[in-house]
Structures are given as structure tokens and as C-alpha cells.
Amino acid sequence: MAEVVYESRVKLERLGGPVRLATLPGESEPVTFGVHGAIAEHYGLDMSRIEPRATTIDYVVAAAGG
Fold first, then answer.
1. What mean pLDDT is reported for the chain?
2. What angle do CA 61, 7, 54 make, to 5 degrees?
3. Nearest in space to 39 (alpha carbons), one of 15, 20, 55, 16
4. Cα dist. 20→3, 6, 63, 65, 66 in Å?
5. For 11-24, how does the pLDDT look when each residue is reduced to its tens digit (9 = 90+)?
């Protein structure tokens, strides 16, 4: 079995509702995740009360396209 060469250390903090703050390796500032558009609509969220933010799936898609 191969030796582990990297272990990602990520800290997540829920700020309320769908908003989460992630501390990621290589980033000097935390990244804020949330919801927008069709995803917010799907969950019945009132976007007049929430600032639109990229979702975790947006980051996964961007990373996979890398």
C-alpha cells in the first residue's frame, strides 16, 4: 500500500441557514459558501434575506474542471 502524501485539513463553521465559512489550505482568507438561484429556490429560501454566494457544488464543479 502506498504512503499517504497529503491530508487536507479543512475547518467548516456554520454561520446560520445555508451559509458556511471554510478555512482551506492555501487560502489566506476563509471562503464563504451559501446558495443562489435555482438551488435557493429548490430549498424555498427567501433570497431577500440571504446574500447570494457560490455553493459547495459550484466549487466541486470548478475543481473537477481544473
1. 93
2. 25
3. 55
4. 32, 24, 19, 23, 23
5. 999 999 899 999 99
